[in-house]
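In response to reviewer comment 3 from the previous cycle, which asked for concrete evidence that the modeling workflow produces usable outputs, we include below a single protein chain processed end to end. The sequence was submitted unchanged, and the resulting structure tokens are shown without manual editing.
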Amino acid sequence: MFGKTTTKAWKQLEKVFKHFDGTEMNDLFAADPKRGERYTEQLENMLVDYSKNRIDDNVMGALFELARERGLKEKINDMFGGKKINTTENRAVLHIALRNRGNSPIYVDGRDVMPQINATLEKIKDFSEAVRLGRFTGYTGKKLTNIVNIGIGGSDLGPFMACEALRHYWAKDIKCWFISNIDGTGCAEVLNKVDPETTLFIVASKTFTTIETLTNARTCRKWLVDALGEHAVAKHFIALSTNKEEVEKFGINPENMFEFWDFVGGRYSMWSAIGMIIAIAVGFKNFERMLEGAYAMDEHFKNSEFKHNIPVILALIGIWYNNFYGIHRYGVIPYDQYLQYLPAYLQQLDMESNGKSVTSDNKYVDYATGPVLFGGAGTNVQHSFFQLLHQGTEIVPIDLIVPAISHNEIGTHQQILLANVLAQGEALMRGKTEATAAAELEAAGKSQAEIARLKKYKSFSGNRPSTTIVLKKVDPYTLGMLVAMYEHKVFTQGVIWNINSFDQFGVELGKKLALNILPELQGTAHNVQHDSSTSNLINHIKKIRK
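The workflow returned the following structure tokens.
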């Protein structure tokens, strides 16, 4: 049984917290001139400095003991060994197999899954290169240069984030578009910008029944047929699915159906055929480099001691804040325009995985689980929510991510960007006392009355945590490492909290109720029982739409 009052290591952490609470990071740095070096880990071209967190050796030692007590090492081995750790759905969890560049056998139910994964990768390679080189053309023989991904959730957020992150590597004549929301605006805006003769639609739906995806796909199909005729569908649509029958009904050539498997969850699927648009945009070699970067992080996570294991360290620090400080939120701030959509991707990865309230042994939790994640691109967000980070009443730990080298080294842009990210971490940690603020105001010639009035406004409490992640450059390999790092962080926290990070039943109830409400809005059903609020809203909307 796992609970905050029943676990030996948890009880020890509560004692450590009582002793440590109130400790100032400024004092920790003053006492240890090498703190910045000691609390830094590096994997190839990724450096992770976690020294500006409210931790010391005793805290980390107790957290590592919690990980050991929770059997983290065994759980890691279970995942990599193909055991069905997604217990509620009786499935293995093998996104790591998709990027298993060592190609060692991984068995599920006694069958090595690597041959089918390798075969699909080869098929992705052949098709993506055929599109890029103009060997696979549209119905009228023109090269397909507008690639439209139709999906939602994991079939959209991962590929969209990765394509934007790797925009520097796009083929010069290819443009990528994404349709996800059921709101028709998204579909209409894309169709207004592309040419039927040069557009390839990728329909990403494992079951080929997802209502948002199929509704958007049918709208795009009608648009294409109206322009080029029914026979054009097979040359302008491909499917990422396992439902061959429905794919064929849609008019897609089954040879252009690319499969993925039950052991790959949607939010972990950009490494699979779901990443087709990535391979087309940046080329299959760069897609492989992304897999290789993820594999490097996989090997690090699987084989490194906890005290040097980057995903484990980040996960445990998150546990420390969430469950002992009572800080149930954190921010991810990439200081790179190419990574601007990383926070949105990580929102699904983290909150869909660990937003759970029932343990793996079927009990309600009595402790906090998944935190709220938000973020945005620096320096933009310095001019929005950073006011709260520095002077608000809510403490928000943040990850600051920055490449040392930009793909677009223009003038002093990158140096200014780097100065800003380093300054933010330092400012959050150091703060500014009232005395310092008063001295600065006095040096600026302010009167004593003005100093007394302004010094509190201009002071900062400091002691606000951040982790700084420095990349050499945002390239396919590094992106793979970065995303895999967060995947394993989320997995580790799920193990500590004793929850299943790989189901997502919480997304289902609202979708089912929507299917009940839809006939009412369409006028084909009446007098369905709802609460008074929902009934009033339905009636109000129907009146407006008459």
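The chain has three domains: 8-69+304-408+465-502, 96-288, 506-545. We consider this sufficient to address the reviewer's concern, and the full set will be provided in the supplementary archive.
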